[in-house]
Amino acid sequence: MTTAPAPEILNDHTGTPRPFLDMPLTHEQARLGMAFHEAGHAVLSMAYGMHVITSEVIAWNTENGGWRLTGNTAHQAQNTPPWQFAAQAAAGELAHINYLMIYGLWTPERAAACASPHDRDQAIDILGQFGFRLGRNYVPEDGKSWGMVRGMARRKVAHLWHEIRTVALAMDENTVLTGNEIAALTGLANPAFQVGAA
Predict the structure, then answer these.
(1) pLDDT band at residue 198, thresholds of 50, 70 and 90?
(2) Could you write out the DSSP letters of every residue in 155-189?
(3) In this structure, are strands 67-76 and 134-135 parallel, antiparallel, or unpaired?
(4) pLDDT tens digits, 52-80
(5) Can you tell me the distance from the alpha carbon of 102 to that of 86, in angstroms, rounded to the nearest whole number?
C-alpha cells in the first residue's frame, strides 16, 4: 500500500486515532513484528472459539519518504467467556514482545513500543458493557486486573507459539489471511459465522 488507509482503520474503537510509536527496526523486521502481533490476536481468538474473519498487516508510505505499519484482526465473538475475550486482546502485544525476544531484537525501548493501550481499553469497555469489571492497574471487586488477563494470555501464547509463528510468517508473506486460511495453517477450528451475532 502506498497511501495511508482510511481513517477508520487507524482509529481505536472510540474513533480516536491510535498513537504511533517509533520502533527502531528495519521495515522488514517491523512488518514481521506486526504480523506476530495480529497472529497473537487471531490464534487466541480462534482457540477461544471466536470466528476469525481476517487478520492482516497494513503498511503504507508517508509523505516524508518513511513508512508506517499497523494491523487489524476482525473476529466475531459470541458467548465467549469474558476473560478469554480480554486475553485475546492482550495476546497481540505479548506475541509482539515474544517475537523481539526470540529473534534477538528485544530492547526495553522496543518492548515499550509494542504497548497496545487501544487493545486494553477496548477489552475494558466491551466487558464493561456486559457488567464485567476489568481494571487497568487494580483488581476491581468481582473482577480482574489487566495484569491478571495478561498472565492468562501469556500462558496461552506460550502454549500456541508454534501456531502463532506459523500464522505470522504466512501473514508477512501474504499480507492478509482469512480465518479459514488460519484454521488450515494451524489445525484450529474456525467456528461458523453467525449472522446477526454480536
Answers:
(1) very low
(2) HHHHHTHHHHHHHHHHHHHHSEEEHHHHHHHH---
(3) unpaired
(4) 999 999 988 888 888 888 899 999 988 89
(5) 25
